[in-house]
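Quick one, tokens below:
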């Protein structure tokens, strides 16, 4: 019996489909089907009930699949222990992040790759819900999202670890009439032309802001940071974003930028954090990378 066959079996149980499992594992449908048939023949029991709509575990199969998951976890622990003795870490690290933190991850990824050159690293940038879905479907190892009061992830089968407490701020040019202020009120923001970065939390914040204080003159929302920078520098527009983003990837030079805190009632805390599958032992690669990232974040906190 090969470990790969157990991995195929568990993936089919997770997805409920041999074809989806084959797609996720990057193998052929026949390879998955034949592997499972081989296991059933070896064990003398039917573990999956196949139909046109998919594949579901039999009563006996459900108990066997549970044991298979436990065995695969133990096998991962065995590999990690062996790599520890050989002082070599190999494998892959799959990361997904909302747009903002990509610049925060950049240095950590490059440093990690230098230290562990045999680890293949994949990074995708996508929306928060897509990240949560990919974590649940084991398509990524670590996902970076913003957690706030309207997004509760604990009940979704993922664990959330806080990395950095953040807050919303406004930014504009030193030439703006707002340049001599330290804070901006809702009334003052409504009098400005606003340009926004296309981000889940920024969208939620501005929707909530407008419900409470009235409509804001939002010229446009874009993923083009240069476009936002030009609007602020050349047309004295105001942009809104999380405070760390103006440090990790400034829109303008320090001398040309004014950062304004919002004059708003006390709000619930907001955190940048990492999500992983609940009740799933993180790989040694994931643990090492998070330690590297936390070191970088501790340096960033001193600047905020």
């Amino acid at each position: 019996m090969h470990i790969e066959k157990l991995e195929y079996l568990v993936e089919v149980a997770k997805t409920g489909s041999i074809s989806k499992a084959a797609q996720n594992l990057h193998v052929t449908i026949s390879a998955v089907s034949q592997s499972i048939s081989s296991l059933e023949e070896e064990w003398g029991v039917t573990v999956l009930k196949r139909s046109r709509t998919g594949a579901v575990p039999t009563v006996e199969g459900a108990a066997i699949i549970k044991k298979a998951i436990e065995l695969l976890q133990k096998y991962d622990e065995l590999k990690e222990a062996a790599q520890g003795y050989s002082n070599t870490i190999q494998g892959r690290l799959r990361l997904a992040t909302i747009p903002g933190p990509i610049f925060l991850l950049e240095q950590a990824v490059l440093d990690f790759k230098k230290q562990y050159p045999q680890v293949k690293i994949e990074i995708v940038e996508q929306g928060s819900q897509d990240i949560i879905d990919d974590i649940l479907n084991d398509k990524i190892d670590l996902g970076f999202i913003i957690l706030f009061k309207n997004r509760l992830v604990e009940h979704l089968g993922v664990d959330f670890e806080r990395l950095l407490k953040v807050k919303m701020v406004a930014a504009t040019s030193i030439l703006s009439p707002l340049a001599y202020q330290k804070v901006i009120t809702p009334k003052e923001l409504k009098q400005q032309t606003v340009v926004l970065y296309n981000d889940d939390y920024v969208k939620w914040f501005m929707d909530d802001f407008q419900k409470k204080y009235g409509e804001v003159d939002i010229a446009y929302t874009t993923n083009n940071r240069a476009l936002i920078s030009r609007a602020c520098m050349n047309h004295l527009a105001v942009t809104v974003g999380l405070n760390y983003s103006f440090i990790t990837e400034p829109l303008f030079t320090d001398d040309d930028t004014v950062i304004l805190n919002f004059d708003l009632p006390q709000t619930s805390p907001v955190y940048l954090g990492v999500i992983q599958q609940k009740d799933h032992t993180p790989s040694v690669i994931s643990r090492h990378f998070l330690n590297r990232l936390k070191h970088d974040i501790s340096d960033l906190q001193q600047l905020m």
